[in-house]
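Dear colleague,

Thank you for sharing your sequence with our group. We've completed the structure prediction you requested, and as agreed, I am returning the results in plain text so they can be pasted directly into your records. Please verify that the sequence below matches your submission; if there's any discrepancy, let me know and we will rerun it promptly.
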Amino acid sequence: MVLIFMALMLIIVFAAMGVAVDISRALATRSSAQSSLEAAALTAVMELDGSPDGIQRARATALRLAGSLAAVEVTANLVRIRMEVPLEWIVLRSSGKHAAQTAAVQLPLEEVGHGLLPYSVLAHDPSSTDLGLRHGEIYTLRWAAQPSLAAGNVCRGDAGLLDGAFPAPLLLGPADRSLIRRAILDSRQSSPLKIGDAVKGSEGILPLEREALAERVRGDADYTSADYASYIARGRGNGRRIAAAAIHSPGEQPHIAGFGAFFLLPASGYQAEGDQPFCAEFIGSYLQGSTRRGAAGTGFLVARLSR
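Please find the predicted structure tokens below.
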């Protein structure tokens, strides 16, 4: 009788162990599938840049990484992936499916702690969607000491402003040589900056800033393209010439109205002697970690999972 009882107990124990293994395998399969879908969604959402081509690239990337059986939904700033994952229960001799899904989105930040150039661009209309800036136009990162339409030392996109309405030349952050180089070369901020903050800074060190901007441009694999459209068409750039900067309101007490992405000119554009401004092409929103612009009109965007 005891032997029969022990045999039954062993059967129960082995069966329980088998079920435990099945459950463990199923959980591991689900976890692996979920991680793969999340990685695919995050990679795909980085392709969105506000264009129809960006939506197609995002969809193709999601299908390539998640598999052709995945169901992919792409909107202007979001990628959603759904997929049925097969599960096998060896001990129970059955199978099933797990419905895995995830989504990634480009989210705008109200406060940026790292990633901004130490300059702020003048908003032409703070109440409009793009703050009054036009995609593809050239705007001022750092103003000349004595800007004048007659002198021709005003960036093209700001030429419509009246003489006397130009902001003072300003570097956001302290005038420390090592901090300036880090701020321009690596977009390392001395302090966080959020929408609504007052615009404060220093006069900077102009020759050092010129040198650092030119060095940053030369650090891009495509340092010769004259504009962003050519840069994207060539497809060789590593993103070094795409920089984020604050955009501030006009007036005597300017504040941060938003953020945007700016395409740096060829190095020669920052090496002119005399009282000349630093100009850059406005291209839209900045997407952290991307080699192209983001999906929104303006803003500092980050790719995040959305549950």
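Summary note from our side: The longest strand covers residues 94-108.

Kind regards,
the structure core
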